[in-house]
């Protein structure tokens, strides 16, 4: 761990966050699965960063680490320059929960079916002392209007089963807003919604960034969504960032072969996860002690199998690929 100070301008900074799980049969050999490998980024107020990767790349683990639903094995999180693990070693306090909120992927599972919308909104309002008992009902109505659920007086009395997927996700966003957070961690917030609804939710989040100066980490498999919302994109492969750059730059001219594979999937009218995963999984059974993408990479060459690439800084773009290291540059 370095001794450098947190970036002064970061609202939320992840520094070298790491997490490894053990996987395998109950009585069989265990293997280690690296879900986060020294992941670092700096998120500022009033902006979005897109964290993009295929299923199993570690995106949701990073969301859970940042939401502090589980501890990392290593690394630090700074909130407003404060080392959160030094401030509170075990569990996240109301202070952290008030500042950083997580929106889950599945709007059907994230709301309790036995409670009304009113219950889901009034509970955090009171717990975080954002409302008094006298004002909570009115504040909940205002939250519903903020997320575009009108007439609010009608929606507030409904149960989750009486809402569409898009409406449930709006309620989930309203619940996150109830504590007046500074940071939203949005874990695949549109992936379980109809294509026609996805843009509405992205527009809602974009409006919140503009109006409330929220900082948003958008976690998604979809580069198009990330480009729409985010200033910067981080591409995640097996728990580590392999390419990072401004959104337009990365989408218009991806350098890393994995980013190009992700990008090719959005050329389709509709995302076909099974088809996409198949295209990436060719050769996955082969093990590489070099670049972890080598078994699937159409551009792999000898060095890729022998040596793990390091991140190269190419005029503000970070790329972790031997195609851009000095080993290969002379041959390109
Ligand atoms: Fe492909 Fe080699 Fe680059 Fe890995 S280092 S992405 S295998 S070209």
Overall description:
The protein is of the alpha/beta class. The protein is 35% helix and 22% strand. The strands form 2 sheets. An 8-stranded mixed sheet has the order 6-7-8-3-9-10-12-11, sandwiched between helices. It has a 4-stranded antiparallel sheet with strand order 2-1-4-5. The longest helix is centred in the middle third of the chain and has 18 residues, at 195-212. 40% of the residues are buried. The model is unreliable at 267-286 and 327-332 (pLDDT under 50).
Compose a concise summary of this entry:
By secondary structure, the chain is α/β, with parallel strands linked by helices. Helix content is about 35%, strand content about 20%. The strands form 2 sheets. The chain has an 8-stranded mixed sheet with strand order 6-7-8-3-9-10-12-11, with helices on both faces. Strands 2-1-4-5 form a 4-stranded antiparallel sheet.
What secondary-structure arrangement, pairings included, does this model have?
Elements: E1 12-23, E2 31-43, E3 48-52, H1 59-66, E4 74-79, E5 82-83, H2 84-87, H3 94-99, E6 100-103, H4 117-127, H5 136-146, H6 152-155, H7 165-177, E7 183-187, H8 195-212, E8 215-220, H9 223-229, E9 232-237, E10 240-246, H10 247-252, H11 257-265, H12 273-281, H13 302-306, E11 312-314, E12 317-319, H14 326-329
Parallel strand pairs: 3-8, 3-9, 6-7, 7-8
Antiparallel strand pairs: 1-2, 1-4, 4-5, 9-10, 10-12, 11-12
This protein binds iron/sulfur cluster.
């Amino acid at each position: 761990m370095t001794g450098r100070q947190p970036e002064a301008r970061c609202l939320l900074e992840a520094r070298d966050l790491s997490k490894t799980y053990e996987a395998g049969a109950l009585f069989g050999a265990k293997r280690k699965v690296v879900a986060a490998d020294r992941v670092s980024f700096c998120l500022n107020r009033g902006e979005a960063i897109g964290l993009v990767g295929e299923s199993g790349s570690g995106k949701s683990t990073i969301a859970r680490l940042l939401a502090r639903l589980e501890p990392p094995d290593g690394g630090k999180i700074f909130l407003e320059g404060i080392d959160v693990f030094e401030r509170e070693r075990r569990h996240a306090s109301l202070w952290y929960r008030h500042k950083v909120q997580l929106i889950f992927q599945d709007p059907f599972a994230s709301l309790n079916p036995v409670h009304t919308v009113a219950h889901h909104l009034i509970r955090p309002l009171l717990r975080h002392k954002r409302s008094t008992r006298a004002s909570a009902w009115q504040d909940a109505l205002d939250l519903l209007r903020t997320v575009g659920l009108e007439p609010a007086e009608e929606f507030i009395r409904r149960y989750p089963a009486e809402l569409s997927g898009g409406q449930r996700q709006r309620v989930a966003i309203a619940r996150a807003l109830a504590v007046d957070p500074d940071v939203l961690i949005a874990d695949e917030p549109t992936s379980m919604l109809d294509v026609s609804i996805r843009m509405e939710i992205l527009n809602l989040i974009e409006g919140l960034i503009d109006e409330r100066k929220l900082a948003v980490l958008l976690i998604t498999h979809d580069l198009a969504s990330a480009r729409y919302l985010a200033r910067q994109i981080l591409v995640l492969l097996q728990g580590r960032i392999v390419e990072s750059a401004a959104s337009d730059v990365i989408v218009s001219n991806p350098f890393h072969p994995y980013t190009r594979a992700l990008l090719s999937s959005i050329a389709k009218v509709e995302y076909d996860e099974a088809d996409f995963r198949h295209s990436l999984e060719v050769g996955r059974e082969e093990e590489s002690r070099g670049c972890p993408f080598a078994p699937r990479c159409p551009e792999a060459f000898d060095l890729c199998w022998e040596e793990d690439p390091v991140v190269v800084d190419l005029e503000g773009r970070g790329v972790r690929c031997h195609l851009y290291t000095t080993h290969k540059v002379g041959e390109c």
